[in-house]
Design a protein that fits this description.
single chain, mainly alpha, 11 helices, 75% helix, 0% strand, flat
Length: 268
């Protein structure tokens, strides 16, 4: 009985510490409402917002148009008709302000399609996982989102790095987070066999993934950097370092004399 009470007390203390850390980091609700972690997920959410706005505008126009037709046909719709139209406007506005929601992809759907779409889906999926992660891991997830944006702009579908990136982003990263979420909350701070706590292991693994994504991005950027350097050197050679054309060499009088006709040379 005493052991049970000790374990229960330890669990409650750990949950209290987790709640305190979460509040210091801004709270779960604020993290859930945080901005998108990357450009890909932001574009998806922007498209969803535009769809909602179009649905609200279309429904309002339809209600107004229907009210006008009924008013013409019935020689006025009266107070009751106005209230019905108003309630319909409120209902449509409320409905389409909340639906359709952004579809969060399932883990099984991440590693499908081309690499760039996979990056956008992964960003959306990572955003949905943030509330369940410790604050240091949330910071790394946000950083990975920015890195995925840069990688998605450079990575071509047939590039040799696409295969390794697909495995890293579409399988290794979500698999690691899924494994972490399966661990009960009160066990995530326990150190097992000297390997660190699950929270520490997750943060370390996310850090390694972030470094690998940065490494791949830099490798892909080497070609563009070399091309830019070559073009810069050409411009310096052709137009000068300050952007002004290089001074033309002074004319050689002897060379000009040799190009004159014989008659002109004799006169000279």
């Amino acid at each position: 009985m005493a052991d049970d009470l000790s374990r229960e007390s330890a669990r409650l203390l750990e949950e209290g510490r987790s709640l305190l850390r979460d509040n210091q980091a801004g709270g779960r609700f604020r993290r859930m409402r945080a901005r998108p972690i990357g450009r890909g997920s932001a574009e998806v959410r922007q498209k969803n917002l535009m769809t909602r706005i179009k649905l609200i505008g279309g429904s309002l126009l339809a209600i107004v148009f229907a009210s006008m037709l009924f008013g013409i046909a019935l020689d006025g719709i009266g107070f009751t008709g106005l209230m019905i139209a108003f309630c319909a406007i409120v209902a449509c506005t409320f409905l389409f302000s909340n639906f359709p929601k952004v579809r969060i992809p399932k883990r099984s759907d991440l590693n499908t399609g081309d690499v760039r779409n996979m990056v956008a889906r992964t960003e959306l999926w990572l955003e949905s996982q943030r509330p369940a992660l410790p604050p240091p891991a949330v910071t790394l997830v946000d950083q990975i989102g920015v890195q995925l944006d840069a990688l998605g702009l450079q990575l071509e579908p047939l590039h040799p790095a696409a295969v390794e990136t697909r495995k890293l982003v579409g399988e290794t990263l979500p698999g690691m987070i899924d494994a972490y979420r399966k661990i009960p909350a009160h066990l995530r701070q326990e150190n097992r066999a000297g390997t660190g706590t699950p929270d520490e292991q997750l943060v370390a693994s996310l850090g390694k993934i972030s470094k690998e994504i940065d490494h791949v991005t830099r490798q892909l950027a080497d070609g563009a950097l070399d091309d830019l350097a070559i073009r810069t050197r050409y411009l310096d050679y052709r137009y000068g370092a300050d952007g002004e054309p290089e001074a033309l060499p002074a004319p050689d009088p002897l060379a000009q004399l040799n190009r004159l006709p014989d008659r002109d040379k004799q006169e000279t």
